[in-house]
Every structure is written in structure tokens, then in C-alpha cells.
Amino acid sequence: PEAITIQELANRMAERAVDVIKLLMKQGQMLKINDVIDADTAELIATEMGHTVKRVSEADVEEGLYAEPDHDDDTTPRPPIVTVMGHVDHGKTSLLDALRHANVVSGEAGGITQHIGAYQVEQNGQKITFIDTPGHAAFTAMRARGAKATDIVILVVAADDGVMPQTIEAISHARAAGVPIIVAINKMDKPSANPDHVRTELLRHEVVVESMGGDTLEVEVSALKGTNLDKLLEAILLQSEVLELKANPDRSAEGIVIEAKLDKGRGPVASVLVQRGTLKVGDIVVAGSEWGRVRAMLNDKGEQVQEAGPSTPVEVLGFQGTPDAGDRVAVVENEARGREITEYRQRVKRETLHKSAAGSRGSLEQMMT
Ligand code: GDP
Ligand code: MG
């Protein structure tokens, strides 16, 4: 059954909660600010206080939140978004670090970088966005929410170890998401490196690399020595050319939360990967069941930015609460709309929790709420 807390109802009417409580008291109901009342009671109260009531369904609330796919005419090329996956200890973190540092322009503030869950590098004047948040978990969380946050998967396989359980897991993740794989055969500096063994093993999992007559790009690298990193970046650009990645930068932004935390000094901080449109300081954003006004944005170098276009990761300050990794982000027209959507989603969340907690006491719960 639909229900709402007294606080939420008061917020929505822009009335004081205490006045709502007084009215309920007159009707013989002794309730507190966080108590839940059913939709019929809420409607009665609202009408009595001179408000018109419009009950909304999920469809109403969510309508128009995520815009139509971009029209081809409005789109321009955007950087590819790349996730590195592979078995533990095969060198994912080392490779992400090496790529990032190899790319830091000498003299650039000592190469100080900010961890915001993703970063961008440039190769031949073209940008590439890497998600460096722990691979599999984030990927799975995002997919569970129906969000596709990756264009290309770099499958790291250690040349001295070969295909392992999480290598296979990564292959199936990429396949299920319909994302092309580029194989990075890592640890080539090791005397025990056996890249051909890796290729043969991959074949058994239907990943056919170019040198075996397939069309999966492959690069032999050493994250430790920094060998062939430029070749890997070239392969990414080649693959993204094939994918013809485009987006419309001239519309309100949509994206995805890649990380979020509550910072003692700065409040809720969300790393957002913009996927379409341009996110701007001052925008009202909704992410999952949280909303906020973008107060400031920082890029992966810790610099303040006013705008972030397609495929750009930014740290966003200004959320009222902390959203979850994997939450979809959308810009809405005003605060009221932000509040409406997130209060609705919070209520649905609570009701779902309530229901599962209530279990067989369902009928009793119904009587009490
Ligand atoms: P992850 O678990 O996949 O993130 O792997 P890490 O990046 O943490 O690397 C695991 C271990 O392998 C570390 O001790 C790295 O120093 C080492 N390692 C990573 N890349 C290379 C490489 O190219 N060559 C060698 N010899 N060791 C590497
Ligand atoms: Mg790691």
C-alpha cells in the first residue's frame, strides 16, 4: 500500500510538519514526524490544508527522466570508456597505474593525480577514459542496474600464469554485456613468460586473438617495465574507431555513479561518469534515491571544472545524501522534481525493506501502518 511519512508530506506541501501533526491530532491520531500515514489519510490532510492532490505512480515519476537515445545528427565522437579486468595478481592495478603515469605530461604539477574512480589519458591527441574502481564488483553492480558503463574491456592475462578462473569470469562478463575485449598479455618481462600458451588457452574459451586468425586485438605488455603501453593505447583507439562511439554533448547530462562516499569535510561526494550531455555546476541532479545541486566538480587531476562532457569522470559535490555505486544519474529541471523523484524512490526502497522484514507478520504490519 502507498504510504508517506509526515515529514515527506509536509515537505511536499511546503508546510510545517508540526501543523500536519496538529491536524492529525484533531482527528484523533497521535503521530510523530517520522511516522508513516497511508495515501488516503495523506490526501485528506493535504486537501484540508488547501492543496490539490495528485497521486503519482512510478511511471509518472520516472517519465522523461532519461531522455531518448541521441539522434545521429546531434552526436559527436566521444572518448572510449575502458575497464580493466582479469585474474587476481595478473597486474590490473599495475597496468592502470602504469598507463596513468606514462601519460602524465612532464612538469604537470609533479604528476599529482586524484583518485576519483576513473581517469583520462591522451594518446595522439585523443582521450581514453579508464575506470579504475575495482573491476568485477563495479562492473557487476552496474550491470545489475541495467547500466552499461564500459565500451571496451582490457583482459589482463599474466604470461607466466595463463587463463585462470577470474579470467574466464571476465570473459563471460564482457560477453554478456556485449563489450569487445582487448587482450593484454602482461608480465612479458618475466623469463617464464609464455604468451603462446595464453593464446591457446584463450582459444579454448572462444577468444580468438589476431595472431591466431581471429579479430580480438592483443598486445604483449609489461606493466612493471612500461613496455608496449603505447601499443595498448593504440589498440584501444583502433577498437573504439570500429565502435564509432558518439554522444550528444548539447543536452542535459546523464551518467553513472562509479564511486560515492561521505566525506567528513565535504559531505557526500560522488564520482560520476558522464555518458551523454554536459554536466554543469548548478545543475540539479538525481542519482538513485539521492538528489542535489552540483556545488562544485573536480576532474581526475583535482582541478575544479565548470562542465563535464560525454565520457568525462568528475567528482561531484552537492548531493544531499550519498548515492550508491552503479546508480544512474540524470539532470532534472528543478529541486522540486529532484525531491519528488528521490522521495518516491526512497519510499519504494523502504517499503521493500519493510515488506521483507515483516515477513509472515504482513497482516499485522498492514494494520499498524
Ligand atoms: P591485480 O591483482 O591484478 O591488480 O595485480 P597487481 O597489479 O596488484 O600485481 C600483482 C603482482 O604482480 C604485483 O607484485 C606486481 O608488482 C606484479 N606485476 C604486475 N605487473 C607486472 C609485470 O608486468 N611484470 C612483473 N614481473 N610483475 C608484475
Ligand atoms: Mg588490483
UniProtKB/TrEMBL annotation:
Annotated ranges, domain Tr-type G: 77-246
G-domain: annotated span: 80-228
Family: Belongs to the TRAFAC class translation factor GTPase superfamily. Classic translation factor GTPase family. IF-2 subfamily.
Function summary: One of the essential components for the initiation of protein synthesis. Protects formylmethionyl-tRNA from spontaneous hydrolysis and promotes its binding to the 30S ribosomal subunits. Also involved in the hydrolysis of GTP during the formation of the 70S ribosomal complex.
Transmembrane stretches, start-end: none
Natural source organism: Hartmannibacter diazotrophicus
Domain of life: Bacteria
Classification lineage: Bacteria, Pseudomonadati, Pseudomonadota, Alphaproteobacteria, Hyphomicrobiales
Entry's localization field: Cytoplasm
Protein name: Translation initiation factor IF-2
Binding site for GTP: 86-93, 132-136, 186-189
